[in-house]
Amino acid sequence: KQTEVSEASAGEIVATAKVESLAFNIGLFSARDEKPFAPPKLPTPLVSKAVAPTKRGDESRLTDALRRIADEDPTFHIRQDGETKQLVISAVGEQQLRVILERLKTRSKMELAASPPKIPYRETITGKGDIRYRHKKQTGGAGQFAECAITVEPLERGVGYEFVDKIFGGSISQPFRQSVDKGVQDAMKKGILAGFPVVDARVTLYDGKEHPVDSKDIAFQTAGRQAFHQAMEQASPVLLEPIVILEIAIPAKYMGDITGDISGRRGRVIGMDTLGDMQVIKAQAPLAEVQNYSSQLQSMTQGEGFFTMEASHYDPVPSHVAQLIVAEAKKALESSRSE
Predict the structure, then answer these.
(1) How far, in Å, CA of 204 to CA of 149, rounded?
(2) Is the pTM value of this prediction over 0.90?
(3) Could you name the CATH architecture of 137-233?
(4) Is 227 exposed, middle or buried, given 0-12, 13-18 or 19+ CB atoms closer than 10 A?
(5) I need a surface site. Which of 124, 125, 142, 282 has the fewest CB within 10 A?
(6) Same fold, 137-233 and 239-319
(7) Cα–Cα distance for residue pair 295/116, rounded to 1 Å
(8) How many CA atoms lie within 13 A of 85 on its CB side?
(9) Rounded (10°) CA dihedral 62, 67, 69, 74
């Protein structure tokens, strides 16, 4: 039975119709109220999947359908990962994700491929490199000529990229120095180890040559790109992986199991605390090792444990692990080229 009311108080459940501007977390309050209610604190989505339609042409339909679900459920998030080029959906738990994927299948009549999201690895250098590279191309018409000499050296983690122009005199014209910079930045989009973005490097341009007729922007971009790749080979390149901070709340009886499990995931405990009757473990671990931690923690603690996770920083990948990642990345690249 429905009963019309002229007003409602906090705690009452009411329904409205034909108010399109209403959405989750919007508070309704009278003018005499000094301030609205604070929105509820929602759980952080911890389980993610990369999704894609199996049928070509359904990408736009999939995005629209996911956005409608996100509007209905504030604990469900979607994002387009700029580095891995994947559409990633996140929810509080595995069950929630399964329900959402089933809804997409039945409501939108779409078949989806779901997989763990790719890890956004990066590459950097730990040493120095010094290269002089000449690009010379002669065809039937106008040719291309560019020569640049650069050094590369590592920067502190998180600084990014720095280009230093140390050319004195006019060995390379100013516009062509900018072309070398463009070429270097283009090369850094895909590193030499496994094709991941290169970060935290300083590139110094200190010499070069140009031709009065054959030198042009594209020639110096090519020279900068090739020079950086060769200099990176000299500069002891390494793979970087994202590290996350975990806060795991568990009954005390599971402490030994959880701390041992963290160590087995290449993680380390950085602190401990209590939360009522629960023990709280604060730890750092590689994202690659805890992507499916939600279901694994539930299994280890019989459903009594819970955790939060947030991004922290990037660290070098151990060499034996890096070899496997590089081999897998090269295999995937070869597979994509053969398709």
Answers:
(1) 8
(2) no
(3) 2-Layer Sandwich (3.30)
(4) buried
(5) 142
(6) no
(7) 14
(8) 2
(9) 150
